[in-house]
Specification:
Layout (H helix, E strand, L loop, with lengths): L11 E5 L3 H13 L3 E5 L2 H10 L4 E5 L7 H10 L5 E5 L4 H9 L4 E4 L4 H15 L8 E3 L2 E4 L4 E4 L2 E2 L4 H12 L4 E3 H9 L7 H14 L9 E4 L3 E4 L21
Parallel strand pairs: 1-2, 1-3, 3-4, 4-5
Antiparallel strand pairs: 6-7, 7-8, 8-9, 10-12, 11-12
């Protein structure tokens, strides 16, 4: 039997799902993997649990009674950074993108393998730990401190999700180079495969937080037929050129 990676000591995971069978299975697998697990079966209970014992990560069902997972995610993110993996029974891409838009770091579509979910949890938590390279990064008015997980733009703190922070850190470490969405998925998310719309949504969210005009991005440029390039040397005048969409008409 394949051995699961060891989670960080005392890593606490909050599982939020109104289906008792799903919640029990997920909790069992996470418990056996060495995590401390809390459970909640609706939105208000989840927020109360998170307030009482701040989790290191939340596994959150999209379809919850009363308050759906999107609203729960918004409120969790408003109270502070916490990684979120969204569970959804829907196959529609719009629903997955909605979860990413409100700050989810990853999503898993039901039915799913509990072992895969445990690996996703470990992957997200691993990315949340301070990187070995803890040099402060800075360019174009941006400053990132990987050790403190703190980012500022013109000395104003940025509210970045885990993946947004890692994506910006990667761009800052690799300026002037074009990267495909597959490259970014592998280097930032640590996956060799996955839904590339995840990258598209995170680039769009990041542009909304670091660009003067997200509709005409100057720093994170779309490279037609390739992907994206971070160019901290580009001037506002350079940005007057027409912005070309990425592959599939999405940028």
């Amino acid at each position: 039997m394949e051995q699961q990676p060891s989670p960080p000591a005392a890593a606490r995971v909050l599982v939020v799902d109104d289906d008792p069978t799903v919640a029990e299975v997920v909790t069992g697998y996470l418990d056996r993997a060495g995590y401390a697990v809390d459970r909640a079966d609706d939105g208000p209970a989840a927020l109360a649990r998170a307030a009482a014992h701040r989790p290191d990560l939340v596994v959150l069902d999209l379809m919850l009674p009363g308050m759906d997972g999107l609203e729960v995610c918004r409120r969790l993110r408003a109270s502070g950074p916490v990684p979120v993996i969204m569970l959804t029974a829907r196959g529609d891409e719009d629903d997955r993108i909605l979860g990413l838009e409100v700050g989810a770091d990853d999503y898993v579509t039901k039915p799913f393998s509990p072992r895969e979910l445990v690996l996703r949890v470990e992957s997200v938590l691993r990315r949340a730990r301070p990187a070995p390279d803890v040099r402060v990064l800075g360019s174009a008015g941006l400053r990132l401190d990987p050790a403190a997980r703190r980012a500022t733009r013109d000395d104003i703190e940025l509210a970045l999700t885990l993946r947004e922070f890692d994506l910006l850190a990667f761009f800052l470490r690799n300026p002037g180079r074009a990267h495909s969405r597959e490259d970014l998925m592998r280097e930032v998310w640590g996956w060799d495969f996955g839904d590339l719309s995840t990258v598209t949504v995170h680039v769009r969210r990041l542009r909304g937080k670091i660009e003067d005009d997200p509709a005409r991005p100057r720093l994170i440029q779309t490279v037609w037929g390739v992907g994206y390039r971070f160019d901290p040397t580009r001037t506002p005048a350079d940005g007057d050129a027409q912005h070309a969409p990425s592959e599939g008409g999405k940028d």
